[in-house]
Amino acid sequence: MPGVEIRPFSEEQLDEAAELLAARHKRQRAVEPLLPAAFEDPAVAREEVEELWRRDATGSACFRGGRLVGYLLGIARDRDVWGENVWVDYAGQAFEEAEEVRDAYAAAAAEWFEQGRTRHFAQVPASEPALVESWFRLSFGQQQADGIREVRAATEVRVPEGFEIRRPTADDDVEALLAVDLALPRHHRSPPVFTVRPLPTADELRAEWAKTLAGSEETVLVGFDAGRPVACWSVVDAKHAPEFRGLHAPEHACYLKFAATIPEARGSGIGVALTDASLAWAAEEGYRAMGTDWRITNLLASRFWPRRGFRTTFLRLYRHIP
Ligand SMILES: CC(C)(COP(=O)(O)OP(=O)(O)OC[C@H]1O[C@@H](n2cnc3c(N)ncnc32)[C@H](O)[C@@H]1OP(=O)(O)O)[C@@H](O)C(=O)NCCC(=O)NCCS
């Protein structure tokens, strides 16, 4: 096989990059047909690559015999959230030979490092284990998983004895729900997740609840144990989940954006019941798929969601230099 030639990515490569992305997506849909069909069309895939390009993406183009055989594009996200970062987003890479992502990264990362951007994130399709493996051999590790599953009609909900599931009401429930809200960020701050984000304050949470209960786009289901809220699940239409779009969002999908049970009630069956109640709600509303995501270091969530039928579509990988 002749050697690969690496050049900086430029606008002239958008068409060929779109072809590579469409081919990658087609391979992924062969494994995960719930993903949207539209992006198998290079013209539709092109919009995704072009969007990155318009966001000042930089990266590498790999050629063999004058033909584009791979590309890598990184964008910058909000520094306050992600630090000095580069994101290889969902449409940010496609390779005929998985090994060559390492050459493409070496060239692109030289510039990123020069700019002081040392936190590197990459969304890699789970359907390409050789590509994941190549990233691992660039010192990346998994940080997050995206998952999807079908919504089926007639999901049976078995509420554990003594529990009740219903929508929250303004005055009665909010104060008691604050502990449920805090259960997720508290868990994320504990080992082995070690998130460093500060906990929200009670007033911030009250303000969020006021918005939600005043009629936001969220559908909230709460699990009560003997009248006390112990668990909360929240689902939105995909259009209200800005990250859940494009290549990894099925058609007619909703998104499970929050789920937490207070520690004392975990393992009681209320989480399974709320998941089923959310799926039953989604079926009634006409959704055909549900998405969610989880920290891979979250031992509870990373075991719970696959057991509830969510299949990983993309692995978010992370490397911090040094
Ligand atoms: C992940 C989480 C939401 C699950 O909620 P939960 O209320 O504990 O869920 P359940 O009690 O219904 O189910 C937990 C396990 O106990 C099992 N279980 C259910 N009823 C049971 C019972 N009566 N006796 C024993 N086990 C039971 C469930 O089957 C499940 O195991 P499985 O996944 O192997 O099938 C909860 O662990 C949590 O809040 N974690 C911290 C916050 C978090 O990670 N949120 C998700 C962010 S993505």
Q: Can you offer a commentary on this structure?
A:
The longest helix has 20 residues, at 170-189. This protein is 35% helix and 28% strand. It has two domains: 5-139, 3-Layer(aba) Sandwich (Aminopeptidase); 151-294 and 301-310, Aminopeptidase. The protein is an alpha+beta fold and 322 residues long. The chain has helices spanning 14-31, 42-54, 79-82, 101-114, 129-136, 170-189, 202-213, 270-284, 299-307; strands at residues 5-8, 58-64, 67-74, 85-88, 93-95, 119-125, 141-150, 163-166, 219-225, 228-237, 253-261, 289-295, 311-320. It is elongated, with a radius of gyration of 21 Å. The chain has nine helices and 13 strands. 40% of the residues are buried. The strands form two sheets. It has a nine-stranded mixed beta sheet with strand order 4-6-13-7-12-11-10-9-8. The protein has a four-stranded antiparallel beta sheet with strand order 1-2-3-5, sandwiched between helices. The site of coenzyme A has 22 residues, from helix 6, strand 11, helix 8 and helix 9.
